């Protein structure tokens, strides 16, 4: 018995030393495609996930630039990590792809209307929160509902992999017809041509669509606060060092007034009244 134990121990020591040799000889350079890791600063570039089709939050403009509150928050964070705006590589991050992009190492972090949830925290980690939004409905002018009870009667459109779609099914309208698209702008087309009665997601996003020049006078928000959406900065799971650096950057963004400025610049034109800056680590 004793002998067997001793030899088992010897075998595991041998296995460990083999594993150590294997690690040491691989001379791994990281192999993450050129980005030096978000926390290191001063590298060639930083890769950040945002939305490309959400005016006021993350939008690729016709001249190939990027604009919105998430873009400003991400740019501020990158600056604090040691990267100039021209060192940022923006990557489109559809709702259903965000966990995959982070887990695969395709992006260093994500600022893309990304709500912090316990389910997502099984796969990724979050810094923040940096904004509190609420789920609402966008409907054709004159056709809005005024109470959550009426939502079950509607044909809704939302996006796969979003909390918005999940909340409809699990929470406030399990009987409603729900169409799940890849992006919210696809839902907007459905709302315009009458295929759906409402587009449902965060009020911050809906306000941006409603205020676009091409949509003036066409759509309005129902004004129902159907959920709390705590926007966090998505990071690779358990990267506590990066989490601390981003939390420090967010604190400094709020204290310096840059956060208020970004709210005014990006939500002002849509008339969206953002909630006060949330406290770091506090989910409501
Ligand atoms: N904030 C919600 C979410 O993270 C809805 C917006 C989105 O899909 O990006 O799912």
From TrEMBL:
Residues 1-22 form the signal peptide. One of its GO terms (cellular component) is extracellular region. This is Glutamate ABC transporter substrate-binding protein. Pfam families: SBP_bac_3. InterPro entries: Bact_solute-bind_prot3, Solute-binding_3/MltF_N. It comes from Streptomyces hainanensis. Keywords: Signal, Transport. Belongs to the bacterial solute-binding protein 3 family. PANTHER family: ABC TRANSPORTER GLUTAMINE-BINDING PROTEIN GLNH (PTHR30085:SF6), AMINO ACID ABC TRANSPORTER PERMEASE (PTHR30085). GO terms for biological process: amino acid transport. Residues 45-270 form the Solute-binding protein family 3/N-terminal domain. It comes from the Bacteria.
